[in-house]
Amino acid sequence: MDLLAEFSAPAQATRTEKLVVIGAGMASGRALEHIFEETPGRFEVTLFGSEPRGNYNRLMLSPVLGGEKEYEQIITHDTAWYERHGVKTRFGETITGIDRQRKVVISKAGETPYDRLIIATGSAPFIIPLPGKDLPGVMVFRDLDDVNAMVEAAQRPNPKAVVIGGGLLGLEAAAALRLRGMEVVVLHIMGHVMDRQLDPAAGYLLQRDLEKRGIKVHCTAQTKAILGENCVEAVALDDGTTYGADIVVMAAGIRPETRLAVDAGLHVERGIVVNDQMVTSDPDILALGECVEHERVVYGLVAPLYDQAKVLAKTLAKQDAAFRPVQTATQLKVTGVSVYSAGDFADAEDREEIVLRDAASGIYKRVVLKDNKILGAVLYGETGDGPWFYDMLRKGTDTTELRDTLIFGQAYQGGAALDPMAAVAALPDDAEICGCNGVCKGKITGAITGMGLTDLDRVRAHTKASASCGSCTHLVEKLMAITLGDAYNPAAVKPLCPCTDYDHGAVRRLIVAKGLKSIPEVMQELEWKTSCGCAKCRPALNYYLVAEWPGEYEDDGQSRFINERVHANIQKDGTYSVVPRMWGGMTNPKELRAIADVADKFNIPAVKVTGGQRIDLLGVKKEDLPGVWADLNAAGMMSGAAYAKGLRTVKTCVGSDWCRFGTQDSTGFGIRLEKYLWGAWTPAKLKLAVSGCPRNCAEATCKDIGVICIDSGYDIHFAGAAGLDIKGTELLGHADSEDEALEIIAALTQLYREQGYYLERIYKWAKRVGIDTIKAAVIEDGAKRKQLFDRFAYSQQFAQVDPWEERVNGKDAHEFAAMAEFGFPVAAE
Amino acid sequence: MTEWIELGPVAAVPRRGARCVTTPGGKIAVFRTAEDQIYAIENRCPHKGGPLAEGIVHGRHVTCPLHNWVFDLSTGEAQGADEGRVRTFPVRVENGLISIAPDVLMQIAAE
Ligand code: SRM
Ligand SMILES: Cc1cc2nc3c(=O)[nH]c(=O)nc-3n(C[C@H](O)[C@H](O)[C@H](O)COP(=O)(O)OP(=O)(O)OC[C@H]3O[C@@H](n4cnc5c(N)ncnc54)[C@H](O)[C@@H]3O)c2cc1C
Ligand code: SF4
Ligand code: FES
C-alpha cells in the first residue's frame, strides 16, 4: 500500500456527493462558504441561479440604485471563488421542477442529478392585483435588472416615480430615485411609514425627514388603479387623488418563492417548512433563506438567514446544530437618516416603556421592558446605542441596575447619575437660553438678583426670556431655582394631563409658535411622556389643531369622544339620541311630520322637547342612525350638534314679528346667527339666545352669548352660565345694526376659539383672561375685530359640512355596522 | 383541534378604535391599538354597562364612554382607583385576519 492510497482512503469512505443548490442569493452564498469550511472536498456543487450573474450583496442594491455604489463593488463571490471551490455555475438558468423519486432537478437544459439538494429561492415581490398592474413601467425592486430598468427611467426629462409601499424597501427605493433626480411620491396604506418596524412617533419623524428631501409621502392611501394607455401615466387613489408617474415601483411586500417545493409535494405553509436542522419534509432536501418557514416564522432580513446558513452546513457535515428563532433589528439605509428598530416594541401586558424625546434635535427613543429585560427598542435621530440595546435584548440582560439612565445610552453608564439641575448650573454665563429673543444665561441670572425678580412672569417681562415660543421655559425656571434657592416658589403649572408637563396655555402657544400640525408632531415636539397620549389630552390636542389650522389639519376621529365621532348623544343603555337643528327654534308641519314618521319607522321609544327649543329623539339604536338621518335629511333637516363642543342652539323669542313688545326681529336674527355659526368647533359648547326686548323671554342673560334687542339696536352680552354654575352675563357692548352685531359675535367666538382651553366655557375663559382684554379686542379695536371675524369666516368654509349627510353617504360606515354576527353555534360544526 | 373562527381583517377595525361582534350572549368588542395589537373584551363596562367599544383607545387602554373608567385591554382590569374587571377573550391574528377561539362563542351562547 503506497502512501497516497493510505491518505486517500478516508476520502473514499465519504465519497463525493452531488450537492445541487437552487438560487444564487444571499443565503446560498453564505451557506456555501460554511459548507466548504466544514466539509472541504466532500461535495461536488452545482449552483443554479435565475439571474444571469453570481451571488452579490442584495442589500446594497439601494446604494447602487441611488448611484452611491457600482454593481462591481457589491459582488460577494467572483469567478475565481467558484473555480477555487469547484462550483459548477449555471447562472441564467431557472429550475422548473424537482423529481424527488429520481432525485433530479429539471431546467431548460435538461436534468441534473443530486444526492442532496438545497432550495434557496428567496422571495418574489408581491404585485398588488390593481387594474393596470401589467402596464409597461410597473416595476419591482428585487434584483440588479430591476435597478437597471429604474436607472434608465430616471434618465428621461422630468421623470416621475410613484412608489407603492412605505416599508423599508419602498422608502429605500424612493430615496434612491430621488437621488437620481426623480420626482417621487410614496403611497402607503397604513397611518405611518415603516409601520412594521416603527411606532407612530418615529414614523412621523421619518416622514418629516423624507419630506425635507423632497419626497412626498401619502399615508392611508388606498390605491385604486394604475392608469395609462400604452404605458404607465398615473396612479389613482380611492379618495380621488391622482399622481402622475413614468414608473410605478411596487414595494408592497414579498412572498416566499415556494412554487418548486409545492409542485414537488414538500410540506409548505407560508414558506417551505424546515426543522431546526434546516431539513424539509424530504430528508435529502434542505432549504434556507426567505423561502423557508421555521416555527411558523418567515424571515425577511439577512441576519437570521446567516444563522440558518451556519446550521445547514453543520447538518450536511452530520454535526449537531439547531436554528433557533431570533429577534431581528432593522436599519433603514438612507444616507443621512438614522432609524433603528429591534425586537417587539408593542405595548402589552406587564410591559413598561421608557420614552426619551428631544425636540430640538429631532430625537426619539423608546425602549420596551418586561421584567426589567429589554423586549424591543425604537430609535430615531440618534441610533448609536441601537446595537447596545439589541445586544442586551438578545442576551436577556437584566437592566435593573441601569434602569434610571438606560434610555440615555451606553455612554452614560457607569458615570454619575444625570442631574439636570447640575447641567444647567454648569452652563457658562454666555450660553444662550432663549433662542427666540437671544437671551443668555448671565442676563437672566443678573436680572433675577439685580431686580429681585421672583416670579416667571416678571422675568419674562424684564428679560424677554421665554416670552415668545415658551419652549425654554423649563430652563428659565431651573435658572430661577438655582439663583433663588428656597426663595423660588414656582407658580403651580397644572399639566394638561399626566402625559405632559405643559399646561393648556403652553400647548396652545407652542402649537402656533412651532407650527405643529398633527397630534404625533405635537407629542414629539413637546416631548410627550407616552407614545399615544390618553383620553384627556388627545381630544384637547385634536381641538387645538382643528381650531388653529382650518382646511389643513385632518380631524382625528379616534381622538374624539364617541358623541362627536358618531354625531349623536350616547345614552345610559348604549342607544343614542338624535336632535335635528331647528333654526332659532322655528319649525313647520313638514319637519314635524318627518320627525313623527322617523319615530314610527325606527320604533324610537321617546320624543321630547328639549330645553334648547328643539326636539330630541331618544333611544335610537346605533345601526339605525344613518337611516334616521337619511330621512331627516330628506325633509331638509341636519344635525343639531347637541353633542358637540361647538355651536349648539340659538334660542329666540317671537320678537317684533308677533310680540306686542318686540323691538327687533329677534327670531330672524337668531336664525341668521345660527346659520352663520353652525358647524364651528369651540373649546366647550356654545349656546346663544336672542330676546326681542329686555323682558328677555329667550333667557339671553344666562347664555354664553346673549343678545337683548332694544329700540336703538342690540346689546350684546356674554359669559353667562346656567348649568353647574349660575351666573348672569356681562355686557360686552352695543351694536347699531344686525350686521355689526353679527361681526362682533363672530369675532368674540373666534377669540374664544383661539384662547379658550379645551372644555373651558366662555364664562371661565373670560374670568381667566379678563373681560377688559376681550372688550378691547372685539369692541374697541375695530381692526382687530375685523381680523378675528375674517379668520372665523375662513375657518367656517371647512366647518359647515353636515356630518349626518356625510355619513348617510357612507363616511365611517364601519362605525354603524358590526364586524361579524354570530347566531347560536351549530353543534355539528 | 377545532378551527378558530374568523372575525374579519385587521384593517376592518380602525387604529385606536374598536368594532363589535354580536353573539347570542352579548357583544364582544374587538380593539386595535395604534401599534396594531388586537384585543377582544366583553363590550360591557362592569360599572354601569357602558359600551366599551365606543371609548377612546390610548396605548393599551380604553376609557369607558359613560363615566370614564379606564381598562387595560390585555388583562381587563380597571385602572387607578376603580375596581372591577371586564372579561377578555383570546384572539389571534394570522395573515391579517383576526380570529377568536371557538369555545368562547360556545361559552357565551351557553350562558
Ligand atoms: C336634551 C337636553 C335636556 C332636555 O331634555 O331639554 C339636555 C341634555 C343633556 N345635557 Fe344639558 N341638555 C339640554 C339643555 C341644557 C341647558 C339649557 C339650555 O341649553 O338652554 C343647560 C344649561 C345651560 C348650559 O349649557 O350651561 C344644560 C346644561 C348642561 C350641562 C352643564 C354645563 C355647564 O358647563 O355648566 C351639562 C354637562 C356638561 O356639558 O358637561 C349638560 C349635558 C347634557 C347631556 C349632553 C349629558 C351627557 O353628557 O350625556 C344631555 C344629553 C341628553 C341627550 O342625549 O340629548 N347639560 N343643558 C337639553 C338639550 C338642548 C338642546 O336642544 O340642545
Ligand atoms: C433592495 C433591497 C434591500 C435590502 N436591504 C436589506 C437590509 O438592509 N437588511 C437586511 O437584513 N435585508 C435586506 N434586504 C433583504 C435581503 O436582501 C434578503 O433577506 C436576502 O437577500 C434573502 O436571501 P435569499 O438567499 O433567501 O434570497 P435571494 O437573495 O433573493 O436569492 C434568491 C435567488 O434565487 C433565485 N431563484 C429563485 N427561484 C429560482 C429558480 N427556480 N431557479 C433558479 N434560481 C432561482 C433568485 O433569482 C435569486 O437570485 C433587502 C432586499 C432588497 C431587495
Ligand atoms: S318679552 Fe319676550 S315675547 Fe315679549 S316682547 Fe319681549 S321678547 Fe318678545
Ligand atoms: S359604565 Fe363604564 S364607567 Fe360607568
Number of helices of chain B: 1
Radius of gyration of chain B: 13 Å
State the share of residues found in helices of chain B, binned by percent.
Answer: under 10%
Ends distance of chain A: 74 Å
Q: Let me know the largest β-sheet of chain B.
A: 4 strands, antiparallel
Number of helices of chain A: 26
Give the percentage of residues in beta strands of chain A.
15-25%
* Rounded Rg of chain A: 35 Å
* Most strands sheet of chain A: 5 strands, parallel
CATH topology of chain B: Rieske Iron-sulfur Protein
What is the element string of chain B, with H for helices and E for strands?
EEEEEEEEEEH
Short description:
The complex is a heterodimer of chains A (829) and B (111). With 829 residues, chain A is of the alpha/beta class. Chain A contains 26 helices and 39 strands.
List the helices and strands and how they pair.
The complex is a heterodimer of chains A (829) and B (111).
Chain A: H1 3-13, E1 17-22, H2 26-38, E2 43-49, H3 61-66, H4 79-84, E3 88-91, E4 95-99, E5 104-107, E6 110-113, E7 116-119, E8 123-125, E9 138-140, H5 144-153, E10 160-164, H6 168-179, E11 183-187, H7 200-212, E12 215-218, E13 223-227, E14 234-237, E15 242-244, E16 247-250, E17 254-256, H8 259-263, E18 272-273, E19 285-287, E20 292-293, H9 302-316, E21 329-331, E22 339-343, E23 351-358, E24 363-370, E25 373-380, H10 386-395, H11 420-425, E26 432-434, E27 439-440, H12 441-451, H13 456-463, H14 473-484, H15 504-513, H16 519-525, H17 537-548, H18 562-566, E28 569-570, E29 576-578, H19 589-601, E30 606-609, E31 615-620, H20 625-634, E32 647-652, H21 666-677, E33 686-691, E34 705-710, E35 713-718, E36 721-722, E37 726-727, E38 730-735, H22 738-755, H23 762-769, H24 771-780, H25 782-799, H26 803-808, E39 820-821
Parallel strand pairs in A: 1-2, 1-7, 2-3, 7-19, 9-16, 10-11, 10-16, 11-12, 18-20, 32-33, 33-34
Antiparallel strand pairs in A: 4-5, 5-6, 8-17, 13-14, 14-15, 21-22, 22-25, 23-24, 24-25, 26-27, 28-29, 29-31, 30-31, 34-35, 35-38, 36-37
Chain B: E1 5-9, E2 17-23, E3 26-32, E4 38-42, E5 56-58, E6 61-63, E7 70-72, E8 88-89, E9 91-94, E10 97-100, H1 102-110
Antiparallel strand pairs in B: 1-10, 2-3, 3-4, 4-8, 5-6, 6-7, 9-10
The complex binds siroheme (SRM), flavin-adenine dinucleotide, iron/sulfur cluster and FE2/S2 (inorganic) cluster.
